[in-house]
Predict the structure.
Amino acid sequence: MTERPFKLTIAALGGQGGGVLTQWLVDLAKAEDYLAQSTSVPGVAQRTGATVYYLEFFPRAAAERAGREPVMALMPVPGDVDCVIASELAEAGRAIQRGLVTRERTTLIASTHRSYAIAEKSALGSGIADSDALAKLARNSAKRLLLFDMEATAERNGSVISAVLLGALCGSGVLPFRKGAFEQVIRSSGLAVEANLRAFEEANQLAQRADGSFTAAAKGAPLPPVPATARTPALQGLLERIHRLPPAVQAVVLEGARRAIDFQDGRYAALYLDRLEKVAALEQAGSVALLEASARGLALWMSFEDTIRVADLKTRGSRFTRVREEVRAPPGQLLGITEFMKPRVEELAGTMPVAVGRWMLASQRLRRLLSGATSGRQIRTSTVSGFLLLYGLSGLRRWRRGTLRYYEENARIVAWLACIGSTAAVNYPLAVELARAQRLVKGYGETYEHGWRSFQLLLQQVPVLEPRSDGGAQLALLAEAALADEEGLALRGALLALHAAAPARQVATA
Amino acid sequence: MAERSFAAEVQTLRLGAGAVFEGEGILAVTKALLQSGVAYVGGYQGAPISHLMDVLADAEGILNELGVHFEASASEATAAAMLAASINYPLRGAVTWKSTVGTNVASDALSNLASAGVKGGALIVLGEDYGEGASIMQERTHAFAMKSQMWLLDPRPHLPSIVAAVEHGFELSEASNTPVMLMLRIRACHVTGRFVAKENRRPGFSAADALAAPSRDYGRIILPPSTYEQEREKIETRLPAAQRFIQERALNEFVGGDVTEVGIVLQGGLYNNTLRAMELLGCADVFGASRVPLYILNVTYPLVSEEWVKFCAGKRAVLVIEEGQPEFIEQAANQMLRRQDVNARILGKEVLPIFGEYTVDVLRTGIGAFLDQWAPQARAVGEGQATRKTAVSPEAAAKLAALVPARPSGLCTGCPERPFFAAMKVLQKEIGPLHISADIGCHSFATLPPFNMGNSIMGYGLGAAGASAFGTDGGKRAVSIMGDGGFWHNGLTSGIGNSVFNRHDDLTVIIDNGYSAATGGQDILSSRATNEHRQGNHSIAEAVRGIGIKWVRSTSTYDMRSTLRVLREALHTPERGPKVIVADGECQLNRQRRVRPLVRKAIEQGKRVVRERFGVDPDTCTGDHSCIRLSGCPSLTVKDNPDPLRSDPVAHVDNSCVGCGVCGEVADAAVLCPSFYRAELIHNPSLWDRFAGLVRSGVIGFLQRRSERRRLRIAL
């Protein structure tokens, strides 16, 4: 049987250094007395798209024995690839999609980190692909699978992912090349040699230990446990009220109550619990779905992002620390922080007493005047004056209950809870979805208003949905449609479909 | 300066006879040109031959040593016209561009060149942008060869074959007085390999020699009656001369095989993939020994009837492997063979797809079907290779498509064009949708998510021309986009001049990023960087004023407020007439390459440097992602929501952020949300910085601790 070339595919993203890695591998093959051929299709894919590099290796000695050079293909062939190395998890999925990974022969080496595609990032809700499903797909598709977080490895060593990929290839042992030769190509390239060698070594070792096991980090932050005693004894009463709720929802309600305190004060947390206890009375036996959804939605709604809240969050010490970490400012490094807050007249009016705020919104002249004065304000929170401005604003908290924004949000919350209350007895699943629909109301400015409009449209459907056994499911579909696009096209379509189907249904049941 | 530097690689162009050259296909082409004694070279960049232009630019010193003249031509038409030097003089010239788009642009000059005929070898190196990775409409260069009677080489994607094709190309051109096109498919341009070099040759005749003793022949002028004579010459003299040369020099290859009742004819460029497909089918080995006889067309136009007859005679069936459509070779084969009463059945598009790239997988299926029908004995089902199938079933494919997110190309991190298109998005929210005539360049990516903007693309520099029909009608004004590359390529006259002359009332936005950025950052007339070989720094605004535009505004794309202001003005002003906005912002890829080392050096030298980057506060971010829909910056991504009450991911700026400021601008101009912040990292702070820092942290720290204590006083 004649020797066949070794076939390697690199699935990468534009800008990840796939070209550098390919050149390293060509040099490596030459040093190890192999004939090598590489090809790629850079072009526009280089600009952040998915790119594929393809290499074939053939022992020079075998070619010499035959007295002829092998003919190497210019592209990977489904079912005929020995090793696929993917610099990102979805790209591993794409290689599988292209049929390049097979159980019969392909070793798949992939990084478990994600670099989100635009469709995943721009969804109105969450559009992120399921990493666990991708990893499972990889496990089912490859002959041998090595998974680890290559980006983290690169990061830890101040290096780049191409060096990690090379190290992983070395550690996997799929290529018949000596480790010293791998290291030599990094040295010969002469760029960031030390960091690249460190990353190479770590990846080499990780690959030797790696297998196909991987579980994506659990989505969402965990809820802290519910303590027996409140940190502030005066609030023990509130905690005990939480203790009396079903155990399954206590943690989420505690978080909600803490949010209410953080937003306003203890009295506000008591209001939160008052409202929730009413919902608890509507709960069906054996279920906490309504209570759970209401606890989340109510806490978020009651801690709406008014100017006071934003100013408060922006001026906290913990926030300053977080910024330092995020931008990797070493201790002692001077750091300036500039905010991009652009309060519109609506936001300013929202901070005013109800009557004043309404007058402000009604006065066209004032509107014009203010929009000129507030547009494009950049506040430097790291300076004394900028900080004091926001700090002072956050101090308006004590008058918040009198502000226009509070008045409006409170009225909306009351109406929403009333709707949940009246629905729960008739159509429990619908009430649960109604509670969940709160997640449409988010964002600022126009985004918020758009969300609020969608939410109102959903509320208006309640009378139609209430008599229907699939009312809850239908409302969930509408909520999903509302999050499908910014223009509200999907929601409009879903509403039309709902109303078109409704009469037909009645006929059928009659 | 181009994105990729070949400064080190071009040294291999100096290799002498017997040395082994190793490198990319494109570098090999350059070396082959020098070995052929080329006197002048030109071209226009564009994938997949952008790197050829970059190699030539980086090799300018070496070219000059050899007395070779190199030009970064203004357009493909310019490059093609440059070949006029080979009409009257024994000067070898070569030009290069992306095909078929560049060939379209060059067609006028090419037709005239082909009609006049050449004395010196004229070679046109074409990057055939077809199949995976292509960025243009899918067409064949083959048609140009046929209509103008130019010869088309399609060598095996193997460095020695490519180098030989360059050398033979010049000889064929001279032997038949016809320009020759050499086409390289995308992967062939980037394939690596080796070949044994020859000595570089100085051109035997120089441009100076020509200028010293100009030669003229009315027979070479494109006017009647010369043109009638030229057409006769093409068919009666040049074509047979070419066919003779191809035969005598054995430019096409024959590979024997024991299953002689069938045969396969293939384009040279498909050789490697065809042989791999055959190997997988068990009818060839890894070294290219085939059981089925092969006829490899390294010259795909003209075809040589005698060779076809020789190959096909006595065969029951012959498969023609010809990528793209229409199937010119297959049609010609039928005609040639029927005329000669050779009755081999010709199969081509019957068993292979009519359109689309011929991947190994496609070839495997097609050749398999051919052999199954006509010569099943040719397939050795030995090593289980014949049964190897595509791994993914249709049902699995549908599932995978839902699981694996698509990853379209997009604007780079910090791209200056992003804030412009974000501004356009904001503007359309205000005034409703606009008709937008898009153009070729990085800005073409605005037609993709998240911008989804642009109604048509008519070609490079043709953005403004593409909106001509909407130029004078009342109502909402049409908006055209044009890049600086397209502007200088032809947009100044085809678009701007046209709108002046025809008294349009519309708006053209010229996006000036300082380079021909999409093709790899080559310099153009308005580039501001210094370039020792080129003269840049010519103002676009002055050029449009010079051609008659009265309403010209400039804006920095990073200043969205200013951009929105000029856009609103352009669309609302009662002033009629064509309007031009020059939207300026340097290509961030080029800028970072330029600026980064300088910043690093300044920090090392102890100079005060402020580095900026952006961030998002996760506690005020509500996870609605409107910022991402307006910006789409790769560094603006999402991460898990740290808030246990929320589930939608929050926006997050990763460490690839270059601090261009677009997110802040977008958040501000679109009144999005207050979550963005800019962090300014001060390196080597001054005494004042330190003092102010102390005061600030004192006051701020005190107040922060105070409110922290208050929060701790009421804690659940």
